[in-house]
Request: fold
Amino acid sequence: MNASTDLETVVNAVKQSKKYGDTSEETIRELAAVALTQHKKPKAAIKAVRTRLHSIMAPYLGDPDYAAAAEQLTAVFATNDQAQIKTTCQEILYTHLSTRERLPIMVDFYAQIFAVTGIPLRILDIACGLNPLAFPWMGLPNDTEFYAYDIHEPRINFINHYFDLQGLPPLARLQDVALQSPQEKADVALFLKEMPRFSRNYAGNGRPFLEALKVDWLVVSFPTISTHGGRSLVNRYREFYAQLIDGHNWPTTELMFDGELVFCSQKSGQFVSTSTSQPISPTD
Reply:
């Protein structure tokens, strides 16, 4: 087979898989092209792509049944019972580990962040997972322009369904931010607990990714405890983030929550120096 045929073979095989078939084809195609430079046979390349997707998408963090969850939301919004709507959103947020861990702190979490950044009129939620369903806890008006980016198509369709019900513009986008960073200008960009995985999967891209975002404020968070072993990661990620923004005049406020370390950086300064020529990656 020729290179073009091999590429289509790998892409089609991954798209037909139950676990990764709903991933953005752009992502699969890019990973397949890279895998075929490293493996002579499509079978080995297919395995390599699935391995990369496992790391990038982290399916072990959990997902709801999106069709059932969409029906659940439709029914509860029809009642116009705001307390019940929040309860249902909370139940769905619980299905994903990242947002489940944030549930106990959610009200204070966004209140403290927006006390630093100001209330955004336009917000980017990058590699969003289920986080847009936290909107009722954010204290934002319904005319907020809320952009959300993810590479899992059913998740994006579900979030746009939620946005419609919530009265927000359906601005969730199927987009691989590692291949194309968001181009929308905004007041605040959220990148919550994703930078460690992003930096491991795309070594050296964390810093240019943050630089490319056209926002007034970056809000980047990290877990404070390792998933396995309960080891504190605070100092490690504090140093890691300092390296990522070193040389930029981005005044930064650190916020500490139970389970999550947050940095709010104002992108108003000018670049003054380069900290390192080596890729920056977390060591955990």
About this structure: The chain is about 45% helix and 15% strand.
